[in-house]
Amino acid sequence: MTEGVQTSPAFTPRVFSGIQPSGGLTLGNYLGALKRFADTQNKGIESIYCMVDLHAITVWQDPAKLAHATRELCAGFIASGIDPEKSILFNQSQVPEHAQLAWIFNCVARMGWMKRMTQWKDKAGKNQENASLGLFAYPALMAADILLYHATHVPVGEDQKQHLELTRDIAIKFNNDFGVEFFPVTEPVIEGAATRVMSLRDGSKKMSKSDPSDMSRINLTDDADAIATKIRKAKTDPEALPSEVDGLEGRPEARNLVNIYAALSDQTVEQVLADVGGKQFSEFKPMLSELAVTKMTPISTEMARLMQHQDEIDAILRRGSERAREIASPILAKTYEIVGMVR
Ligand code: TYM
């Protein structure tokens, strides 16, 4: 993972990533983020994972649902194999340094940079005047999340790439403006077969919790029957599967199902195709369905079990926030000093 790292050797490798508790985790979140977090943790690198509740409220969230989604997300992290003893798990609002550093970065980032963000354009839609100011400033808060811990590596799905480039721009501009080498230039880690899991109904659209069709996604809370039905009904084409990756060209739905199979079975796409090349979807879909059920149902069962013990989840988040603050607070204090805030 450290190949090609451009960060200064002064920065110890540290992983940070975040997920919004905006209701419902999908197979995209699992393969693009959670599963990879667990793999990273098991390599022994210090890792910090955040439920970004301050980001979630950039669009309206019902308060009771936000609280439920935050706990459920924490349960999702743990059920996916993230050990709260090894990694730090916490919710963003409980470490006020995130909002404090974000304000500094609001003053470093330029309006033009923010306006170019595709997520801003997509989420604000045609009615930008009516979008929240928080939605516009969203990427500066994300940069604060990462840089508050001097994180060097950020594992994310493909859709976060532009935000991570902006994080690098903010770090570079801050360092230049103040003549310091204080913030690392963070490396995005976008690796593996499933950094962009697509909708099961339309291979050109990302699998997303906000898609109106529940058949378009596998939820982490789906049971075996729901998973099997969704895979059986997933859109495909009439051709047999190819034996080589080139043969997936122009076949987005086939590519997506093969990518999902590869990521779930910890294989490369090449390895999967060497095995299943020549098979019809009528044969491949049951294989995928069995694999997905085997891998995913223990996670949903464990999430449901953990949700019976909300006090324990809250205690894990509280303890995580304390540990996160121990790292964040000296970095914020140093930032204030660099900027010239008297204390
Ligand atoms: P969010 O909450 O939309 O998604 C969380 C993670 O899941 C990945 N992901 C996917 N990966 C593959 N295929 C998909 N269909 C798919 N859908 C989602 C996302 O890429 C992400 O890694 N802005 C971030 C949250 C954030 C953050 C951060 C991330 C806030 N601060 C600091 C990293 C570092 C977001 O909205 O992710």
UniProtKB/TrEMBL annotation:
It comes from the Bacteria. Its EC number is 6.1.1.2. The keyword Metal-binding does not apply. It is found in: Cytoplasm. SUPFAM superfamilies: Nucleotidylyl transferase (SSF52374). One of its GO terms (biological process) is tryptophanyl-tRNA aminoacylation. GO terms for cellular component: cytosol. A motif ('KMSKS' region) lies at residues 206-210. A motif ('HIGH' region) lies at residues 21-29. ATP binds at Q20, P21, S22, G28, N29, G157, E158, D159, V197, K206, M207, S208, K209, S210. GO terms for molecular function: ATP binding; tryptophan-tRNA ligase activity. PANTHER family: TRYPTOPHAN--TRNA LIGASE, MITOCHONDRIAL (PTHR43766). This is Tryptophan--tRNA ligase. It comes from Thalassococcus halodurans.
